[in-house]
Amino acid sequence: MNKKNIRLGMQHALYPNISLKMKLTTLFLIIALFRVQANTYSQVAKITLDLDSVGLMTVFEEIEAGSEYKFLGNQDVIDRDRVVSVHVKKERIHKVLTDLFSGTNISFRILDRQIILKNEPNLQTQFGPMPKIDKIAKPQLTVSGTIVDNNGTPLSGANVVEKGTVNGVTADFDGQFEIELSSANPELVVSYLGFATKEILVNGQTNMTITLQESAAGLEEVVVVGYGQVRKSDLTGSVASIKGEAVSLQAVGNPVQALSGVATGVQILQNSGQPGSGLSVLIRGGNSLLGGNNPLYVVDGFPIIGDLSSINPNDILSIEILKDASSTAIYGARGANGVVIVSTKKGKEGKTSIEYNGYTGFQKVNNTIDMLNAKEFATLANVRASNDNIAPYFTNAEIASFENGTNWQDEIFQNAVIQNHSITVSGGNDKTVFNVSGNYFNQEGIIINSGYEYLQLRSSLEHKINSKWKVSFNNILSRKKNNNIFSNNTERGAGVLSGALISPPTVSVFNSDGEYSNVRPYAFSPDIVENPVAMALERKQLSRENALLLNIIAEGKITKDLVLYSSIGVQYENTRGDNYSPSIFQPSATGSASISYREFTDIVNENLLTYSKEINNDHDLKVMGGITSQKTSNQSLSASSTGFLSDILENNSIQAGSSPGTPISASSEYSILSGLGRLNYGYKGKYLLTTSIRADGSSVFGKANKWGYFPSAALAWRVSEENFLKENDLIGNLKLRASWGKTGNTAVSPYQSLSILSSSQTVFDDNINIGYAPGSSMPNPNLKWETTAQTDFGVDFGLFRNRFQVTFDYYYKKTEDLLASIPVILSSGYTSQTTNLGSMENRGFEVSLDSRVLEGDFSWDLGVNFSSNRNKVLSLPEGGDIFGVGLGNALPAMSLVREGHPVGVFYGLVEDGLTDDGLINYVDTDVNGTINSLDRQIIGDPNPDFIFGINSNMSYKNFGLTVLVSGSQGNDILNYNLSNVADGFSFGINQIRDVLGNYWTAENPDPNAKYPKISSNTRYQGSDRFIEDGSYVQIKNVRLSYTLKGDTFKSLPIHNSQIFVNIQNLATFTNYSFYSPTLNTHGGGISKGIDQFGYPDTRTFMLGVRINL
C-alpha cells in the first residue's frame, strides 16, 4: 500500500530555494545581533551627575532623564528625607548605585535597562547604621583586570562582585573590568554562564588576570536510577531525564501524557480521548505478545502496579526513563519494557512557602465527520431501493421537506469545561522538612454526560534523628470518579459515537410527546442502532476508585562508608463499578443492572546496603546489595440482574430485578522474592564500569522455573577528560558508552502452571447441582520467564562549551520464550493454554539535541528528538500465525503476528476495482477462482518508521513562550469506522458525504469508482480499503506566560506569580480521514493501530495562574 506524504500546504510558494550556506549565515547573524543587543547597553552606558544636597528621588529622576534606565520596585522603602551630593563623570551605573546605597538597607539589581530596588534589612546590619552623608565615600582600592577561559579567550559579560556586598561590575567585550572596592581586605567573586564560579582574595593586587574553568553543571546533575543516584557525568546507561517543569507546563490529568514528544524512544498511544482513559506506552518498541508492553513505574523508590494517574503533575520534581538493559536489569522480571522513575518534590529547610497553581478552560472536538444530511440520506435510500428493484422508501415530496435534518454529532458533542486547582505548602528546619499538597481536577467530556473528577492529597515528611539516621514518610491519597459513555470498540450504533454517525438524519432526537425518538423507523434500518443522545444521557456507566500509596523509609550510616536503606510500602486500591441500562434499551422493556467491586493490595519491602569509597582520589567505588520482597493480592465481586419494572432506583436496589444473575467472586495472590547487587567503579572520572545482577523468584511459574537471573554490564569512556581533548574549544564533553543486559517479564496471571477448578452448574433429575470441574485453561508446569537481552552503544557529546548537547544511541533487543495463550484441541477438555513460544527483535536508534540557542534578555532553549525502531517476529511454533482481536460483525480479526514481519501487521484482502455489476472485486491470491480467507495478505503496518518531538522554550524579560510539537511518520491505521459509515449500503445506515458522486451506477459503470453500487447486496470484507496513512505532525502544546515579580504586589505577601494561557492540540497535520490519528482503541499490543469508534481527541484552551507566597 502506498503511504501518503504530509504536506504543510503552500510551503513551496512561501519559501524560494535558498542555499544551506545562506540559511546558516542568516541564522548565526540573527543570533549574534540578539546577543549584542542584550549585552551592549549595560556595558557601554556611563552616567554623569553633578548634584549638591538633593533628595534620593531627585537622583533617580536625573538618572532616568540622562539615560535609558528606569527604576522599578517599591519606592516606599526609600528614605525620601535623605539628602546626598553626587559628583560623578562617565561612571558605570553599578558603581554609582553601589556608592549611593552604601550603608543602607537597599539592594538593587540591574536587568538590562531596568533597575529593581529592594529592601534588605540584613544589609544595614552588615554595614552598620545608615549614615547621613552629603557625598559619596572614596573607595579604599581600585582593581582592574581581564577575565579569560583556559585558552586565553576573553569572557565578555563576566560578572565581578565584591564578596559580601552588592558592589559589582561586568567585563567588557575584551573581558576587561575595573572595580572600586570598599572593604579593608576584599574578595572578588567572578562568575560567567557555563563556567565555575571563582573567589579570589585581592591581597592588595591592583591588576590581575583571572582564568575561569568550564563548569560541568549539566554533567554534575544527579540522575535517579534504580535503587540509587548517579551524577550525569558518571552515567553508563541510556537514561532520559525530564524536569518536573516540563510536565507541569502541560494541562494533563495523567503525567504520562506529558511524555509524548519529550523523550527519545518513547511512544505514547492514546486508547481513547475520554477523560480519565488509559494510555499505552512503548519504550523502544513492544517486547511481549501476551502481557502489556507498558513500563514499570517507580514513585519515590516504590515500584507501583499500574500507571501514574494518581500523581499530581505539579508534585513531580523529575522523571527518569531507563531504556537500556544495564539500567533496567536491576529491576529484573519487571524491567523488560523499560522503567519510568518519578521523584516528587520534597520540603526544604527555611521558612514555610505556599504555592497555588490552577487553570480553567474549555475543550472542543478537533473536527467532525461530514455526513449526509436528511435530503441526501433519503435520496440515496431510494437509489438503494431502485438497485434492489423495490419501491422507493421516500416520496419526492418527503425528500423536498427534509432539508438538512438532524446533525447527530452536534447533538452529542459539547464544549466541555476543564479545571485544575493545586496548593502546595512546604518548609522545615534543620531537623524536619515537609511538603504537603492537595489537588482537585475536573474534566467534562466533549460527549455529553461523560467526565472525570479527581481529588488527591500528598504528603512528604523527612526527619533527621541524628547526624547519621533519618526517616522519611511519603503518602498519596486519591479518589477518582469516572462517568463513562459507551464508545470505544462498538459497531453499527451500539455505542454513542457510532450511533451518532449512522443514525438517520431524517429523525429528530425527541418525538412530539417529548420521548426519545426511534432511530430505526424504516424497513431497511438495522436492529442494533439506538438513539445516541438517549444512550449518553440515560445509560449509567460509573466507576469510582479510592487509592493509597504509602512508603516509609529509614536510612542511616552504619559507618562512614556504609549506608543502610530500608523501606516498607503499601499500594491499595478499591474500585466500584455501577452500570444500569434502562428499559428503553431492553427488548423486554425492563431495566438491566450490575455492580462490581475490586480490591487490590500490594506490599513491598526493600532492604539495601551501599558501600561507597574514594581511594587515592583516583578510584571511585560503590557497591550495593539487597533483598526485596513483594506480595500482591486481588479480590473481586460482581452481581447483576434484569427485569426491573422501574428505572428509578437504577442499580441501587439490585435485588429488585426479577431475573438475578449468578454472583461471581474471585481471589488471587502472587509474590516475588528478589536478591540484587550492583557495582559502580570509576577511575579518574574517565573510565566507568557498572555491573549488576538480580535474581527473581516468582510464584506464578512452575517449580522448575520459578527463578530467573538478570545480569548486566556497562562501560563508558569520558574521552573529553583525556589530555588531548581537555583544551579543545569545540568539544566540551565527549563520552562513549556500551552496555548489555538481560531483563524479564512475568506477563501471566497467577496459577497458569497449575490445574484450576472452576465452579459449574448442571441440571440432573430436574435439580440444579453445583460442583467443580477443570477450568478452560490447560495447566503448563513448564511455564517459564519471558526474557529480553539488549545491547546498546551510545555517545554523548557537547559542543561550544556544552551549549549544544547531543545524545545518540543504537540498540538491539531480542526477546525469547514469548508468553502467549494458544488454542488447544477440544478433545483435551480445555480451550487454551498459556505457554512459551517463539522470539522477536527490536532494533533502532535515537538522537536528541538540546541547545541554548540564545541567552540574555531574550533566551531560547531548543530540544529536538528523533527515534526509529524496527520490530520483527523471528520465530513462532511451526511457523504458525497468531491473530489479534476480532472486530465485530463488520470485519474479522485483521491484526497478525507472523514470522519475518512486525507484530500486529494488518492482514486482509486486496481490492481490484469493481465487477461488471458494481460489486467489489478482490485479488484472487491463490488463483483458485474463489475469494476466501486464503486470499488475504499483509496490507499495512501500524508501526511507525520514526517518531519525533520538538520542544521550544523562549523568554523575553517577563514573557515566556513554550511550544511542543510531536509527530509520527510511516504508520498505518485500520480505520474500522469506514466499515460502517462507508459501507452501510446493505444496512441502510447513514454514510459519509464523500459517497455522493463517487459510487458506481448503471448509467456510469466505472470499474474504478471509489464506492460500489448502493444496494442491499453490497457487502464489504476486511481489505486494504480500510487501511489509511496514520502519519501526523501535531502542535501538541503552546503556552504563553507572563511572570510578575514580588515587587509588583507591594504590600501583598507574594514572592512572584505567573499568568499563562495554554492551548493543547492546537493543530494536527495528517491525511487520516477520521477524528484523530493518535487513537489506538485496542491498546498497544497485538491489535494496535486500530481506530474503532474511538472517543475523539480534543483541542483545549486554558487560562491559569501560579502564585508563590
Structural features, described:
The structure is a single chain. The protein is 10% helix and 46% strand. It is mainly β and 1109 residues long. Among the domains are: 93 residues, Phage tail protein beta-alpha-beta fold, CATH 3.55.50; 78 residues, Immunoglobulin-like; 105 residues, TonB-dependent receptor, plug domain (Ferric Hydroxamate Uptake Protein, Chain A, domain 1). The strands form 13 sheets. The protein has a 22-stranded antiparallel β-barrel. It starts with 10 loop residues before the first helix and ends with a strand.
CATH topology title of one domain: Ferric Hydroxamate Uptake Protein, Chain A, domain 1
Could you tell me the radius of gyration in angstroms? 35 Å
- Global geometry: globular
Summing up helix and strand content along with how strands pair, one would put the structural category as mainly beta
How many individual β-strands? 58
Based on the coordinates given, report the CATH architecture of one domain: Beta Complex
Number of alpha- plus pi-helical segments: 14
**The CATH homology group name of one domain:** TonB-dependent receptor, plug domain
Bin the strand percentage.
Answer: over 45%
Regions with little confidence, pLDDT below 50 for 5+ residues: 1-40, 123-138
Distance between the termini: 59 Å
Q: What would CATH call the class of one domain?
A: Mainly Beta
Major sheet description = 22 strands, antiparallel, barrel
| Mean model confidence by pLDDT | 85
Helix-residue proportion: 10-25%
